[in-house]
Amino acid sequence: MKEREFWQLVDEVFGHSYGRSLSRDQSLTALDAMTPVEALEAGVQPRVVWNVLCDQMDVPDSRRWGKGHNAPPMPAGSF
């Protein structure tokens, strides 16, 4: 997953305004309390950030990848 795809899914699953706010403000406990934006800036793979955010926000698998998207493979060595 590329960062561009991460942001597309944020907009699709959470809505543009709420998703952007969530990405700046939500501390992700599984990623040392970094926000999604901080985690991306620290070099965490977008796919990992997305899964952690969705897990924490209780987004079900059926909605997690938006309409018509397949889950991309997890990066090697993640979780």
The counted number of beta strands is 0
Strand content: under 5%
The radius of gyration computed from the alpha-carbon positions, rounded to a whole number of angstroms, is 11 Å
Helix/strand/pairing category: mainly alpha
Shape: globular
Keywords, separated by commas or semicolons:
79 residues, mainly alpha, 5 helices, 0% strand, globular
Description of the molecule:
- This is 4-diphosphocytidyl-2-C-methyl-D-erythritol kinase.
- It comes from Bifidobacterium tissieri.
- It is a single chain.
- This protein has helices at residues 3-14, 16-25, 36-41, 46-56, 61-64.
- By secondary structure, the protein is mostly helical.
- The chain has one domain.
- The chain starts with a helix and ends in a 15-residue tail after the last helix.
- The model has no long low-confidence stretch (mean pLDDT 89).
